[in-house]
Protein 1
Amino acid sequence: MALVVFAGCSAVLVAAAVLAVALPEVGGRESEVPVLAAEHGVDMGVAVAVEPLLWDGDYRHVVTSTYTSVTAENTMKWDSVQPERGEFDWSGPDAVVDFAERNGLDVRGHTLLWHNQQPDWLSGGSFGPEELRRVMHEHVARLVGRYEGRIGAWDVINEPFADEGTELRDNLWYGVLGPDYIAEALWAAHEADPGARLYINEFGIEDGGPKADALYALARDLVERGAPLHGIGFQSHFVHGQVPEDLAGTMRRFTELGLEVAVTELDVRVPEPPTEEALADQAGEYRRVVEACLDVAGCVGVTVWGVGDGHSWIPEWFPGYTAATPFDEDYRPKPALDGIVEALARRPAPVAS
Ligand code: XIL
């Protein structure tokens, strides 16, 4: 009898040892992230794609063990949701929201009005103001309304400023409706889900400067006019070696308007081939970004743009760059993950009142 018990135990031990070798990431530092993030009261989120979410268990494991919220990387964009006028496809958005709810994760909604990933019928249509307004209201009402109370925050307006500029981008909405399209879309989203936090999401503002100043002026104007704007998203697609020194300072300025802020699309791209030294430095860069958020009272969280380097938009969009996320192509945690954990562990968590 004793022998049988002993044999049973050793079998378990052997099995555990094999598992430990085969799955070095299980129970690794990533599982510290959600615990520490909760202590700070911030979200640590990740952008997800539908296919691997449905079919790749390792991908799902990284998401559920490391993060506290998800953003749909593409499937809530206009061309996915309403590929033909009046024909809505909810399969992707439903998959993301259902997955999040099953796993106790929050959802950021991304995105309502943007100049990219619009279906042809929309970008190529010749709409007058009245009709475009109707189209916009219907899309926002259907999409935001479908997930009322289930998607906590929406990027209502994405990239409203010209790439390098201080002028509002001359997109479809601006061209037909004028600058007030922004307030109008915010109101439409607010009507569809009065509880959702509504954001303007922008890139190239993280280091301050003229574009950040222009966004600040727009945000202040919207706040003064009583528009339902609640937050500013700092996309934060950084290049290794060029992560801004004072991200916290730039974010804090917006919070002084009474707005919350979030890092919404963090990645740090490294030139090919990624050296060990570069990846070690990248860890410090991830650490600094998370620290910046923790240092700003109104910063509600950080979202990383891509579950692993095999699912990152960087190689396709920035040829010659790679390795931009905290997990490698085989979902092994990289030094960048340690950077995130260190930031969360080193900064004192706020004392509960
Ligand atoms: C990117 C996705 O990651 C890619 O898969 C897609 O091909 C293009 O869009 N700013 C944004 C995101 O707000 O929606 C973009 O996502 C990256 C830049």
Protein 2
Amino acid sequence: MPRDSRYDILFEPVRIGPVTTRNRFYQVPHCNGMGRVYPDSMIAMRGVKAEGGWGIVSTEQVDFHPTGDVTPYTEARLWDAGDASVLGGMCNAVHEHGGLAAVQLVHNGQDTGNIYSREVPIGPVHRPVSWKNHPVQARAMDIEDIRAYRRWHRKAALRARSAGFDIVVVYAGHDGSLPAHFLARRHNQRTDEYGGSLENRLRLYRELLEETLEAVGDTMGVVARFAVDELLGSDGLEWGNEGHDAIEMMAELPHMWDVNISDWDNDSMTSRFAAEGYQEEYVSFVKKVSSKPVAIVGRYTSPDTMVSVIRRGIADLIGAARPSIADPFLPKKVEEGRLEDIRECIGCNICAAWNNISAPSRCTQNPTFGEEWRKGWHPERIRPRESQAHILVVGAGPAGLEAAHALGKRGYEVTLADARSEPGGRVARESALPNLRAWNRVCDYRLGQFALMTNVKLYLESALTKELVLDFGADHVVLATGSTWRRDGVGRALRQPIPGTEAERSFSPDDIMDGNRPPLGSVVVFDDDHYYMGSVMAELLAGEGYKVTLATPGNCVSSWSEYSLEQGHIERRLLKLGVEILPRHLVRAVNDGVIELFNTMTGDTVKRYGHLVPVTMRLPNDELYYALIATPSSLMSVGIKSVRRIGDCYGPATIAAAVYEGRRYAEEFDRECDSDGVPFKTVKHVLELGG
Ligand code: ADP
Ligand code: SF4
């Protein structure tokens, strides 16, 4: 189908200095946990994005000198010519599909420990490094250090050109880069020409831009990636004062502006905390003060919103990290008039979380992300069926939905059955919780795809028993029957049920999602899960008028959500809702409406009255699986060739893991897999031994 003409504007070329991008879709630099450690995976992933139509495809942050070594994070590196040749592979992959390749040169200054390079960190003043309270200090750079730093940056830009990049992004963002540290009053108390006035604090960044333009600006686009607000009020940069003035002072200098808010937790807010387009209010002034093209980010997934951003004069390019991860083919789908095929990012930040753990990023919506090279998976293509099999998938949660979707795309006959009256399993249930609505896109996308396939049939209100499965007549059965939260407090910290939870009703997240509630009064949410569910239960119940205490054995509320960049946002929200937070606490017993807790450090006992909401762990719903495999002869007699478990029914985990398991089942179906071997390609490092 030809594209709707109202989207034509998204496909206009934009000039960025000496280069021109074919459209307004700009995959901004984003970390992915592959970088220098898994370069083949990173290169293939970037190539797929260019194939999907992104006009500009950028690297992640690329460190350009050992004094800015971000180990243990697996970013890309451009320390020398060898690194340039690795990144050259990415340029080729992007060019092959007509995209422009951009490199983001980054030095994290006082925000690194240099734990691999062992160089002394550097910054505007003497200061302990901010990275993980690491016990070393960044030393104050003198004028000679600043000269050296500028030289390293210039040389890196030249290396980037030799690698084949078309665009170099000069970075002062996220409170994590050396030029940003020089710019911030709270970091920079220098008394020389690099400290004091805004002009002085901006000097280093201006010099980097000027020197990059001078070195490579004749052939490469030079982009300024700049945070205009830090959401710190007058303690930080604000778009209404210094953020604005800084842009104005350099307005015409770069070939393009890529503006955002800082730090990363604010720039990449999850959908729980910010809606699509949340950065507009901060960055919309930039186009008023500069004639250069401006790029904006803000988790844009709707082409109509993108058009509106451009028509309203907010920006010229739609920047995207997460939307390009969830759907590398977003631009192509708009171009080909296939909007119903767009796989919208749900704003969960699983991608960021894996990067922050120093592992290859994963995506909840796009299970092929990071598997392009390693497993040969493609977000849009999957090999056709190799038999006439009819597959029964039991359970239409994320695992079952994705299995049915991918098997359907392969051409198999698929029946998907679910006991409930609505599809989606846990995503349908969880997206009804406060501020998680966007999560249901996991379900929406797949249901939309079923509508285009005649070989996938979905049956709701169909609770299947062993007998019904045997009667059904499928060749293969996949159980995606999910899991159930425990009610007794057993989990990571407690290995025995909390005394009293049997006699006195406690409410698991499933109970709450089913609409059950204790009488209005006090509740204690006991969170030994440490991700989002405990905090969401607290948020929901506090919003309904309960007096909520959240007790956790962790050091803080939702400690794991540090990785998904949400921890601070979660804690702030709960405190604003009046939730009492008790870190380092375990529940000892529940007795006659009294919940006895104790501090894990001091042993001191604390009592709270009311009901307990334990958020600790889930157990697989695998009864049907075990019932079926108990009698192989009955399976054989009805022609069932295999019975498999996937998703939470196999191992309760994230929604991303369930989607991946569903995809994996479909990808591996009709293929011999060596269960003793490694199920993907691995990188072999060749050691330089001997003379
Ligand atoms: P996952 O995350 O692994 O996809 P979910 O818990 O989200 O798991 O989804 C499991 C789904 O399976 C739920 O929608 C549930 O209603 C359904 N289900 C569980 N047991 C049966 C059954 N015996 N027959 C049909 N559907 C079932
Ligand atoms: Fe979006 Fe979540 Fe995928 Fe990241 S992991 S791209 S936030 S859907």
